[in-house]
Specification:
The protein has 4 helices and 17 strands. The chain is mostly beta strands and about 210 residues long. A hairpin with a 2-residue loop joins strand 6 and strand 7. It is globular, with a radius of gyration of 18 Å. About 35% of the residues are buried.
Length: about 210
């Protein structure tokens, strides 16, 4: 975790020197519903994951921290590898993944829980609660036995004249089975489903091993 103006900068925070210029375009694709999908003018296969195009973001941590925006690449890395959003190290302790959330995770109509908040390791939770404006001392602390990708936070585009694209919705949540929408989405954050999620008493857990399901 870096510092800026004497304040620690969370691992997932975006910096103004990490922006990457790109041009969105439409490209033919055999498996796409309409035969086309959102793409980059200079796209490579690594620009897609889970069937969706991802916002390009550098990893240099150069320049000034932007505080509110998250770095797409680091947020996704935290979600996929259970890393702490504050320090960037493992958020797994005694086989459980640790989280601190401003609000309880969202729930689908079928009762499936999901969140776009990356894990936070047990040792970083007190610091996060103190310094993060969105968290309060009474924020929710959880552990989970595992997690898996559920969806993305994305900007949704639609085709326009002369093979251009226009944005129609910003920062919407799309499940990974929303195939048609994903073909025209630019993902900025990964959403996961935590399995075996349990509310945890942090103060008591700091003096004892993490609960095991």
């Amino acid at each position: 975790m870096r510092t800026a103006a004497s304040l620690p900068v969370p691992y997932i925070t975006a910096y103004d020197g990490e922006s990457v210029a790109y041009q969105l375009a439409l490209a033919a694709h055999l498996e796409a519903t309409d035969g086309i999908r959102l793409s980059y003018a200079d796209a490579t296969e690594t620009d897609w994951l889970f069937g969706v195009l991802w916002h390009r973001h550098g990893m240099s941590r150069a320049g000034r921290p932007l505080w509110k925006p998250v770095n797409t690449a680091r947020q996704r890395r935290c979600m996929l590898h259970n890393l702490c959003q504050v320090c960037g190290r493992s958020a797994v302790d005694d086989g459980r993944i640790w989280w601190v959330m401003a609000e309880p995770p969202a729930t689908t109509g079928a009762g499936q829980q999901f969140t776009n908040a990356p894990p936070t390791c047990r040792s970083c939770i007190p610091k996060a609660r103190t310094l993060c404006p969105r968290l309060r001392p009474e924020s929710h602390v959880y552990t989970a036995r595992a997690s898996e990708p559920y969806g993305v936070v994305a900007d949704l585009y639609r085709p326009a004249a002369r093979r251009k694209v226009v944005v129609v919705q910003r920062a919407i949540e799309l499940p990974l089975e929303a195939f048609r929408d994903l073909e025209y989405a630019l993902a900025t954050q990964l959403i996961v489903t935590p399995h075996g999620l349990q509310r945890t008493d942090l103060e008591r857990s700091l003096d004892s091993p993490a609960a095991v399901s």
